[in-house]
């Protein structure tokens, strides 16, 4: 054994205590850490021939790299709908690395059973029925990809063919309909060979991002065969929700696969005042929910749910002598694109077991209140204006006289201040900013500090 490796093995408890102390220091300082750090170009060092051991490598990381890392786990990071990581989920992520389970085949540990239990808990959390099963994947992109792969296979089934066997070309033209599709839907369509151009956007309700169900019905009327409909439970810019029950009811007249992108909006189910927004979620054929957003588990973590696990096995089965064929209760190696899977379920299991439905409901409701608080401050400002009502946890706003150049400078200045991090967007053709609240650490004091900095920045820009 390499001498450095042998020495680290002998000192493992001491070294892990050093890592624990450093991690605890980082977590304790999240409130003071810059929300984002503008990257500085650097050249990679050459691969070392000889190692320096964990202690020295950790010290080098702390000096060379850690200062450039953002406070994305902290309370004032409002970009990308990024949650933090609860104490329980941090512990779960550490144990995931320590135990290093292969969560694909279910022949050598109980890891698969823990994942199944976690999926059951999440399904109940979102009010989705027992007819749905699911699995953990890396994020919303992969969850949407799995859901649309199932839709593609369903289209083939209606023609008496298996696309998993014959290929997508056997289907001919595929039509995908959606009101305000997320960018990952286009990416998934590209990956699956369905093609970005297959997606037809359907008119939305006036002043909304929610699809006009009558317009969707008309678009379906024009088709000669089955289609795929992608509905939204929480759009990126304004957290708008499609009427899932009304869309599902259209299947009485039109054959289509209903995929619901509920990446973060699915968590509205936890708030009694907002649960109506996801009424009908259980009617979907496939569902995407991101967990490293509002569940506040570390990257990367999401789930996919479907009522057609048989199609899922048909697509993703990985038969090999050392793996075995799928059974009536198939291993996860037969259900997801990845054959090699870390146990993403453990951080989610621990945070759900530690804090339960009520603990996570509290996170959701506090974040909704924080978004409303910032929205009120924006609405009262003389130089900012809201572009949409604050429906859930996202505030979409712009300058009184917006230009892309002015907003780009403000975004840069806000990032440089370290106070908060916002992402730019375009809503209804207007350049804008987007503040997304999903971190369990955020407090009213953080919101006041963010609002003060946002309101002050345009004045700095005009000096």
Automatic annotation (TrEMBL):
UniProt-listed InterPro entries: Aromatic_deC, PyrdxlP-dep_de-COase, PyrdxlP-dep_Trfase, PyrdxlP-dep_Trfase_major, PyrdxlP-dep_Trfase_small
Keywords annotated in UniProt: Decarboxylase, Lyase, Pyridoxal phosphate
Cofactors demanded by this protein: pyridoxal 5'-phosphate
Keyword Lyase tagged: yes
Keyword set includes Lyase: yes
PANTHER family: GROUP II PYRIDOXAL-5-PHOSPHATE DECARBOXYLASE (PTHR11999), MIP05841P (PTHR11999:SF70)
The protein's name in its UniProt record: Pyridoxal-dependent decarboxylase
Family according to the record: Belongs to the group II decarboxylase family.
Record lineage: Bacteria, Bacillati, Actinomycetota, Actinomycetes, Streptosporangiales
């Amino acid at each position: 054994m390499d001498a450095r490796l042998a020495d680290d093995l002998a000192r493992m408890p001491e070294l892990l205590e050093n890592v624990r102390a450093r991690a605890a220091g980082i977590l304790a300082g999240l409130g003071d850490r810059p929300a984002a750090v503008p990257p500085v170009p650097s050249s990679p060092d050459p691969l070392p021939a000889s190692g320096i051991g964990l202690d020295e490598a950790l010290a080098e990381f702390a000096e060379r790299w850690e200062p450039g890392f953002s406070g994305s786990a902290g309370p004032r990071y409002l970009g990308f709908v990024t949650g933090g990581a609860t104490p329980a989920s941090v512990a779960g992520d550490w144990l995931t690395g320590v135990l290093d389970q292969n969560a694909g085949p279910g022949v050598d540990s109980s890891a698969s059973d823990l994942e199944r239990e976690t999926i059951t808990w999440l399904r109940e959390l979102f009010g989705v029925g027992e007819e749905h099963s699911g699995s953990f994947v890396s994020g919303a992109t992969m969850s949407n990809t799995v859901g649309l792969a199932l839709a593609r296979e369903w289209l083939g089934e209606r023609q008496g063919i298996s696309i998993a066997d014959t290929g997508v070309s056997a289907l001919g033209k595929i039509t995908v309909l959606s009101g305000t599709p997320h960018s990952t839907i286009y990416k998934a369509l590209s990956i699956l060979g369905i093609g970005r151009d297959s997606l037809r956007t359907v008119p939305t309700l006036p002043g909304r991002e929610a699809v006009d169900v009558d317009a969707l019905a008309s678009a379906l009327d024009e088709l000669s065969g089955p289609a795929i409909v992608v509905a939204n439970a929480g759009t990126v810019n304004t957290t708008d929700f499609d009427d899932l029950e009304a869309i599902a009811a259209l299947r009485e007249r039109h054959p289509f696969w209903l995929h619901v992108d509920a990446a973060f909006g699915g968590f509205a189910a936890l708030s009694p005042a907002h649960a109506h927004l996801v009424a009908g979620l259980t009617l979907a054929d496939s569902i995407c929910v991101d967990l490293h957003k509002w569940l506040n588990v570390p990257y990367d973590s999401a789930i996919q749910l479907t009522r057609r696990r048989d199609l899922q096995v048909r697509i993703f089965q990985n038969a090999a002598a050392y793996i075995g064929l799928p059974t009536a209760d198939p291993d996860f190696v037969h259900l997801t694109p990845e054959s090699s899977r870390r146990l993403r379920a453990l951080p989610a299991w621990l945070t759900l077991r530690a804090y339960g439905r009520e603990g996570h409901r509290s996170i959701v409701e506090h974040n909704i209140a924080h978004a409303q608080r910032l929205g009120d401050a924006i609405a009262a400002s003389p130089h900012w204006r809201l572009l949409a009502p604050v429906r859930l946890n996202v505030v979409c706003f712009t300058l009184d006289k917006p230009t892309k150049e002015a907003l780009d400078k403000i975004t840069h200045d806000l990032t440089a201040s370290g106070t908060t991090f916002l992402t730019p967007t375009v809503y209804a053709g207007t350049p804008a900013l987007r503040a997304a609240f999903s971190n369990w650490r955020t407090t009213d004091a953080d919101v006041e500090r963010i609002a003060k900095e946002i309101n002050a920045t345009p004045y700095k820009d005009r000096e």
